Every structure is written in structure tokens, then in C-alpha cells.
Fold this sequence. Notes:
Layout: E1 2-8, H1 14-24, E2 27-30, H2 31-38, H3 44-53, H4 66-103, E3 108-112, H5 116-119, E4 127-132, H6 135-146, H7 150-162, H8 167-173, E5 176-179, H9 184-208
Parallel strand pairs: 1-3, 1-4, 2-3, 4-5
Amino acid sequence: xxxxxxxGGVACGKSTVxxxxxxxxxxxxxxxxxxxxxxxxxxxxxxxxxQSFGTSILxxxxxxxxxxxxxxxxxxxxxxxxxxxxxxxxxxxxxxxAEVFRRAPRAITVVEAALMVEAGSYxxxxxxxxxTCSLEQKIQRFAVRSGLPEDVARREVELRMxxxxxxxxxxxxxxxxxxxxxxxxxxxxxxxxxWNALCKDEEGHARQIPT
Length: 211
């Protein structure tokens, strides 16, 4: 089984690219969805976050308001939040990969995570893919996704970028780069090329594992 990481900056289209890999047959996982699950009321991660960040981040139903948490975290406390969330997400991810391996030992798994490089978890994987696009595209996409005015979206994107490694740093560590600044067709063509390369990588990887 080949373990692949997919990362990139805020609003660069990681989930769109992940869906393209899924269409090729990859087993995919979004770390953000795992984190959301682990942050549900009653979970250990939920309790730890409340202990650290207080009850002001809670919605009326007792669930964690992710925008409220993000405001606090990206204002200088992102490492504190990551120290709570990342170990639990990685443990969940490991269990998921073990289950995939039991079902399909020749599978290609692709895990999408925005802070994979920052957390160092990419080192546990076989390959790393970074998705890129321009700053203006990130701002426009974030504005559409969040429903915020573009000037507010710009501040939010810049705040998140300041708490992350630069795109150049992530690209330097990557095995493959997908430029998602063009058309969907252009991105699909790049994904096709990377997928074919990953399939060859998996074949070589499988031959190295004793049977």
C-alpha cells in the first residue's frame, strides 16, 4: 500500500483535487473531517479544547464554533491547538490506514491535511503532493466559501497564511506539485499524470515488501 499526503495553502482547492484522486480509485481521507468528528461534544479532544480555550468558543447547542476557535487559534495560539488535535487525528488516520491495508493491501491512500508539513506528519507517508494557486485566487475562493466580503476574506487568508509554512517551503518538500490556478481540465490532466506515477510507485513499493 502506498501512503500519500496531499497538502497546500488555504482555499487552494485541496478537496477538489482529492476528489479527482478518489475518482481514479484512491482511498481518500480528509484530516479536517476527522478533526471535526473528534471535536464533537463528549470526545476527549473536545474536552481538552474547552479546557484550553474556554467556553466562549461554544455555540448555543454546546458544540465548538469552528470560526470562533479559528479566531483565537490563528491569533497566536495555533501551536496550542495543534498540540491537542494533531496526535488524535494521526492516531485515527493510522487506524484507518490499517483497515484499508487489511481490505486492499495494494491500495493507494491519499490523506488531505492543510497542516501536514507543519505537524511533520508527512514524514510518516511515502509521497507528498502540494496543491498551489495564486494569492488572489485563494482570497476569492475563501470569500465564496465563507460568504465573507473580499476585504474580510483577504485578512482571514493572510492571517492563516502567517501561521503556516509558505507555499514555497511545502513545494520544496513535495514529490509532486499540482497547479490548481487554471481550469478544472488543467487540474485533471495534472492529477492524471500524478496518478499514473503513483501507480508505478506503488508497484515498486509492493515489490520491496517481503511476502
